[in-house]
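Per your request, structure below.
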């Protein structure tokens, strides 16, 4: 029986530690403070980790200041931030767990196909959290909620890379 439960969790790939409603509220309300700053967020990630910029065919080898104000940059930034917004909006509700699992698994598969490594996802996470710390009302409870949310999401991604 124990084996069956373990096996089922592995196959379903259940999110290890789902956010409580309070934690989801903290993540959602802090994300709302910055989710309209798509270009700034992606630029902060590229500035902190140029190896991430180098993976984007349209931006590789170019000066960040020169590409940051282009339509192509805004389009990419909006795609990435919208994905995060979608997952964040679904969090905190157990009935959305399967949808989150499938969206994030696909993100991992798509990025594996692009040659993105788990270490680069960790870099992305580090840059994102640094951006949040400086641009939202940050505190121990907000940090803990984001940490849990990102642990859950990145565990799913890493398993696919
Ligand atoms: C949580 C982190 C990330 C999210 C939410 C994310 C999200 C996305 C999304 C939504 C797209 C557009 C998919 C499409 O329309 O085809 C995309 C494309 C892409 N992402 Fe990510 N990404 C993340 C991390 C990374 C990292 C760490 C790298 C590189 C090191 C990366 C490299 C790329 C590349 C190269 C593309 C394709 C760009 C192109 O089509 O020219 N992503 N990403």
């Amino acid at each position: 029986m124990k084996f069956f439960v373990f096996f089922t969790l592995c196959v379903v790939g259940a999110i290890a530690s789902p956010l409580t409603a309070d934690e989801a509220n903290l993540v959602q309300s802090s994300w709302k403070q910055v989710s309209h700053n798509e270009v700034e967020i992606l630029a902060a990630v590229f500035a902190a980790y140029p190896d991430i910029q180098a993976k984007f065919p349209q931006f590789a080898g170019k000066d960040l200041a020169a590409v940051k104000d282009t339509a192509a940059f805004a389009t990419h930034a909006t795609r990435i931030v919208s994905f995060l917004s979608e997952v964040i909006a679904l969090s905190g509700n157990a009935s959305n767990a399967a949808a989150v699992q499938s969206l994030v698994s696909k993100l991992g598969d798509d990025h594996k196909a692009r040659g993105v490594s788990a270490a680069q996802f960790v870099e992305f996470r580090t840059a994102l959290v640094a951006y949040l710390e400086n641009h939202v009302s940050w505190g121990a409870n907000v940090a803990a909620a984001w940490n849990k949310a990102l642990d859950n999401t990145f565990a799913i991604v890493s398993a696919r890379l």
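Residues 140-160 form the longest helix (21 residues).

Regards,
D.
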